[in-house]
Design a protein that fits this description.
This protein is an alpha+beta fold. It has 3 domains: about 170 residues, Coagulation Factor XIII, Chain A, domain 1 (Distorted Sandwich); about 45 residues, no CATH class; about 160 residues, no CATH class. The protein has 8 helices and 20 strands. The strands form 5 sheets. Strands 10, 11, 12, 13, 14, 15, 16, 17, 18, 19 and 20 form an 11-stranded antiparallel beta sheet that branches. The radius of gyration is 21 Å and the shape is globular.
Amino acid sequence: MGRYLRFWKFLTILIIVFPALACAHGGGLDSYGCHNQTATGTYHCHQGRFAGRSFPSKDAMLRELGSSPTTPTTPTSPTGPTSPSNPTTGDKGAVSPPYDRDLYRHWVDADSNCRNARHEVLLIESIVPATLSADGCTVVAGLWLDPYTGVNYTDPSDLDIDHMVPLQEAHNSGAYSWDAGRREAFANDLVLSKALIAVSASANRSKGARDPAEWLPTNASHRCDYVKNWMEVKRRYGLEIDSAEREAIEAVLGAPISAGSRLESAGWDEIKRQSSSAVFGLGVRKLSQCAYSSQVSPSDQIQITVSVLPDRAHIGQRFDIFLVADIPAGLFSIDPAGRFTPFNGDVASLVPFQDDVYLRQSQEVSVFTGALNDELVMNLFIGYATEGGDFVYTGAPLPLRVTDN
């Protein structure tokens, strides 16, 4: 995969490009969660409906949003690096036109490989290699764990593919204003791993179109992940959360709704020299809690996770994933065992956290579990290199604090 060439590129980026981008991304976000990006001359969004996207200008974004330049339709309130953005709270469905399932073309075969989105999900989520039909178009056997019930299944006919946020719920939460292409993308999203889930038919039909204020999985141990996954899909698509829904989510989290989301940084494509649709996340959670924490103590039992939502153009390639910590002692790459390896300019000292990973959709990786027993204050850079030679990384570092102060 040309790893040593990419190591040299990554070294150059760390030393030269990251500090420049930190300055280029400076300044506050406007009411849409966006700002003018001086490095590229584009209008880039970090929050709200278009998080992770760039436009030639603010007017171009407004035209797609269908709004006037003076009236935000989905306002967001920039809350700083330790309080991730969330969908707006509104009177869901109050002014939406009637829901029609035919508006959301689903189970399409987007890559024309004869397997529609249902069978792609079954293939991806099977715990063992799934068995395909003779023509390779349908999944006929495998092993799936339904997280809603905690029960294993081997026959795909016992399973439905659940839209984490049901189509009707999405419609009433803002999708009614989307064009046909965006509706189809939402209904068949194979890149965001939380969007479509293989579950038992009975659980899916019990859930129906209900939100967390009306339905939660019978498997109580999954409810924490369920509401966080629900929030991730709604946040990614800029869908509204109403007051009852918010209260139900916060009851499961045991914390304000903002604590249900990882810190995120939009990607930067170094090869194309432009913003990328990739999104990187960092989450720190005390093991005794559901919600993420902005600050934890060295004695706390914690889990640190990172997430990678690749650029759609890179799906289906093999990846090397890098983690680089910027701490007072200097720059360190984090190796597969979670050890900090000094990064002193020697190309060989920079190692991938994971190498040769095949990514078909977003992925979450546990970096550390346990008590650090020492203070740690750092900025984390996350990046990936593809076998095709692309390199994407965090446009801004993600802060991590483990301290008693």
